[in-house]
Amino acid sequence: MGKTVVFVAATMTNPGIAGVAKGTSEAAGAIGWNLQVIDGDGTPAGINLAFSQALGLDPDGIIVAGFDTKLTSRQVRQAKAAGIPLVGWHVADTPRPGAGSELFANVTTDVQDVARISAQWIIAESGGSAGVVIFTDLSIPFARNKSQLIKRALEDCSGVKILSTEDIPIADSSNQTPQRTASLIGRLGDAWTYSVAINDLYFADAAAALHDAGKPGDGAPLNLGAGDGDPMAFNSIRTGHYQAATVPEPLLEQGWQTIDELNRALSGKPRSGYVAPVHLTTIDNIDGATYWEPADNYREHYMQVWRR
């Protein structure tokens, strides 16, 4: 045991990444590994510096979370040359990186399933008649792909109109989203009835502008987060505070999975291939949850696997 692992985060202001980091920290402690989290602060320069700092620690493995590894191609080559395995979270479009990928594994739900259930909820809730705004971050390939899939699924319903696609970097959401939201209200008026975002964070940042415009917290536009299902989003759904639903990732469990995948890589075993099932959280099934936990025994399961 006693491995050293570094978690390189695109930005820890992304609550999805922060949730996964929390689960990774839990798992590292359980397996007896040392974990260090380095924040890329949401900029290409910061992410490059964070990855370089990770390499400087001479770790046994690196987890990369929430950014395009093309930004850090030099560091990726260095990691490969040094025999340091890389595990991603929301780095590639697919949970199963293809041959030649720099990643040993990419931990995520199936983005096509997430897109499908997100679009289906909006279509069903609106009776097939909705004016939708999409919030995304086109700088992240995973997020770009997700929002494009959602858009296509919504366009399959003739009564749904895509009113706008707002490209806002997650790292700058707190600055840009309030202003964009106010502008959208002024431009679209009551035609804007639903929103879908690739991350719940956008709705926390939009809430003040919606409130100032006199929009009710439990009324139109009804907001759906197509990821990541952080505690703030769960609370907003529970209290009817400018979010109606989320398609959450099992963030804590995925944190444990990142450690399991690294353990497999370091043990010369194949990746697990596990992909968590998709889930929709609304006021009808939220109960007292703060994270989505698809199984309540995954910690014990992983501990048993690691003791073999």
UniProtKB/TrEMBL annotation:
Cellular compartment(s)? Cell envelope
User: One matching Pfam family, short form?
Assistant: Peripla_BP_4
Q: Identify the keywords attached in UniProt to this record, alphabetized.
A: Signal
Q: Where is the Periplasmic binding protein domain?
A: 5-269
Q: Where is the major localization of this protein?
A: other
Its family remark reads: Belongs to the bacterial solute-binding protein 2 family.
* Official protein name in the record: Substrate-binding domain-containing protein
- What's the source species for this entry? Hamadaea flava
